[in-house]
């Protein structure tokens, strides 16, 4: 069962195609991290998926319903937070919780209190007077408190201090492990999502370039260092540098049989795999495809 399925999902702004024929599945109960350079189309994809922006072509199914027909009953099962959302400035933090609470029968007041405490939010401060990070925390608390089945977060870490980022990751992991929640999160903060990601989705210029599990990525990527600067290396390798008396590269399809004898082979953390994918991709525009 998939929490999200898109078929040919496309969104144009006049003549610019921001999201181009995306066929994507997000399996239920997985944590998916959407990455891509600035302007790759991440925000547009998330909004188009949820029909916050109507698709120009194609369609999306969210929790089994065509996103154009998402009614309050389905929306209660989805939590969406974006850094671009404008909260109602006149409400206080406590007022925001009181405003949303009756709309969600499953709202968990104990969890709400815990989130507000952990996020150290001033309950009587008006939303319009919160800092950017505090406003993000208030928005996150107001969606985590109803334990959504699907959590869609657009750049949730932006503007948050490191402690709060950790608490947010903890809050998400708690939701995922206890409720089997599905998470789709776009982020440039790759260190933060290292512990979270089950699956990685890479967008480039509106195109879906890769969807793969974190385990598969960890299994196929290796940093390789070989003594000597004239060793022959497989053609598929990335970021090859011949420095001093060493040759170093990243192998995106590691295979011992085609690795030079005596090479030092090191697994890469997901964070470095993200960076390698983004860097590789930015050097192969506009048509380069990532080997997978
Ligand atoms: N309302 C709009 N009108 C015209 N063009 C838009 C609009 N919204 C987005 N775009 C364009 O669509 C493309 C994708 O934008 P989007 O905000 O989805 O990218 P992103 O990957 O979320 O970027 P970032 O990482 O910088 O937040 C960009 O070229 C952007 O200029």
From TrEMBL:
It holds the Pfam family ABC_tran. GO terms for molecular function: ATP binding; ATP hydrolysis activity. Keywords: ATP-binding, Nucleotide-binding, Transport. InterPro entries: AAA+_ATPase, ABC_transporter-like_ATP-bd, ABC_Transporter_VariousFunc, P-loop_NTPase. It comes from the Bacteria. Residues 4-230 form the ABC transporter domain. CDD domains: ABC_DR_subfamily_A (cd03230). PANTHER family: ABC TRANSPORTER ATP-BINDING PROTEIN ALBC-RELATED (PTHR42939:SF1). This is ABC transporter ATP-binding protein. It comes from Synoicihabitans lomoniglobus.
């Amino acid at each position: 069962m998939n929490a999200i399925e898109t078929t040919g999902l496309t969104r144009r702004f006049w003549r610019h195609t921001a999201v181009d024929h995306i066929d994507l599945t997000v399996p239920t109960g997985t944590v998916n991290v959407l990455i891509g350079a600035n302007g790759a189309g991440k925000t547009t994809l998330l909004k188009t998926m949820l029909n916050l922006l109507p698709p120009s072509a194609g369609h999306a199914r969210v929790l089994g319903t065509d996103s154009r027909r998402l009614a309050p009953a389905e929306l209660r099962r989805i939590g969406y937070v974006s850094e671009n959302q404008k909260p109602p400035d006149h409400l206080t933090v406590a007022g925001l919780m009181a405003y949303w609470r009756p709309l969600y029968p499953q709202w968990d007041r104990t969890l709400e209190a815990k989130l507000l405490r952990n996020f150290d939010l001033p309950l009587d401060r008006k939303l319009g007077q919160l800092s950017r990070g505090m406003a993000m925390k208030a928005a996150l608390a107001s969606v985590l408190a109803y334990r959504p089945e699907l959590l869609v977060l657009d750049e949730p870490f932006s503007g948050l201090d490191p402690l709060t980022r950790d608490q947010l990751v903890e809050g998400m992991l708690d939701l995922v492990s206890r409720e089997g929640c599905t998470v789709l999160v776009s982020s440039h903060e790759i260190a933060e999502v290292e512990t979270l990601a089950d699956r990685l989705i890479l967008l480039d210029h509106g195109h879906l370039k890769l969807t793969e599990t974190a385990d598969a990525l960890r299994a196929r990527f290796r940093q390789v260092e070989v003594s000597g600067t004239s060793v022959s290396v497989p053609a598929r390798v990335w970021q090859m540098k011949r420095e001093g008396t060493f040759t170093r590269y990243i192998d995106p399809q590691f295979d011992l049989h085609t690795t030079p004898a005596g090479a030092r082979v090191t697994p890469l953390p997901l964070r470095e795999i993200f960076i390698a994918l983004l860097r590789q991709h930015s050097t192969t525009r506009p048509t380069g495809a990532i080997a997978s």
